[in-house]
């Protein structure tokens, strides 16, 4: 009796959809290139099995469009190295912000949202600056398809002023223009804005590399500086802002931050993440053998929302590597159209 071989592409669409939704992110990317039926069936899958993962590290900006991804698993020491072909991150692209699987990218005067795992791209109105002559960092409040999405880019203009650029509106709402603000803020209050930018609890937080910070509320349009010694963690609650001393590597737990921390609304930041996550060695470098410039993101550790700081590690050696911490998610533009 002659056996009949079945074609995997002829599986029912609903079954293929259920398979796609159960795949991890990298397996989902492989699933999508099998055939057109697999690609169509996975159009709404997001790699949701990776929701509990730690942020992954994406190294980009080398001469080729080949980027390296280091994947981490929460509660495990195992890591994996993956390669992605991302021409969108060539040509002087700079990742200014990272949130929930989306990157905010500046490239040759244009600004856009980009999901590197699906290659989904959402163009934004032209940024007021065609070149970033000084250091800029950014945060956005929620995924770009939300009409409530607020984007803020911040930079130091001079020794006495901070420049803040704000854009309202999300997906399919690109008719808005950037609004520019100029705030009086001495360097003694905020040296630079290289530490990181995050959105949490309806407030934007910006840190410098010396441990000082400012908060900005879009509803109040107020910029509030608060001081903090280097290598300390800022804990912000509904009632006040206080500082607790936690030296890296940071281990966030109820006992570490103390009983008085408000568990419903607490926030901290993590320094030296490149070192603690062993990025140098995983990319094949010894410490200080390469120059790194990275963009952080916000993640959950224990009951704390923790901001992974931006890092700039200088080295006279080559190569120069740009990197960004990103949550492993897959988003298709068509899914939200």
From TrEMBL:
Q: Which SUPFAM superfamilies match?
A: F-box domain
Give the highest taxon in the source lineage: Eukaryota
Name the InterPro entries on file: F-box-like_dom_sf, F-box_BR-signaling, F-box_dom, KIB1-4_b-propeller
According to the entry, every stretch annotated as the F-box domain falls at 5-38
Q: What is this protein called?
A: F-box domain-containing protein
